[in-house]
Amino acid sequence: MRTLRLLCWLRWRIGLNTTTVRSRWATVGITAAVALALSFIYVPAAIGSYALAVKMGVAALPIVFGLCQVTVLWFSLLTGAMGRTFELDKLKRYPLRPRDVFAVNTLLSLGEPIVLMTMPSLAAAAFGVARHSGAGAGLAAGAAALLLLLVTESLLQLLLALIDDLLRREWMRYVAAFLFTLTMLGFQLSVRSSTSRFAEQARRSGFSMDQLLERARQVFERLPITAAPASVGGAHPAGWLASPIAGLGVCALLILVPLLLGGRVMGRASLRAAPGATPRARASHAARGSLGPKLPGLSRPQSVLVAREFLYVTRTPALLYQLAVVTLTALVLMVAGSSGNKSLGAFTPVVVMIGTLAGRNLMLWGYDGPGIRTLFLVPVSARDLVLTKNLAWLASAVLEAIVVFGVLAAFRTRQVLPLLAVVATGWLALLLVGGVLGTWVSVRFPTRPPERGLGRRSPGGAAGVSALLGMLALAGALIVAVLAVRALTPVAYKGVASLVVTTLAAAAAAAVWWIGLERNADLLEQGRERMIDTLAKSADT
Amino acid sequence: MPDTPFAVQTYNLSRSFGGRPALSELTLEVPEGSFFGYLGPNGAGKSTTINILTGLLAPDGGSARVLGLDVETQSLEIKRRIGVVPDGLHLFERLTGEEHLRFVGEVHGLSPDEARRRAGQLLQAMDLSNDAGKLVSSYSHGMRKKLALSCALIHDPRLLFLDEPFEGVDAVATRELRELLQKLVATRRMTVFLTSHVLEVVERLCTHVAILANGKLAACGTLDQLRRGPGGEPRSLEDLFLDTIGATHDDAAAGLDWLTKDSGPA
Question: For chain B, how many structural domains are there in total?
Answer without folding.
Answer: 1
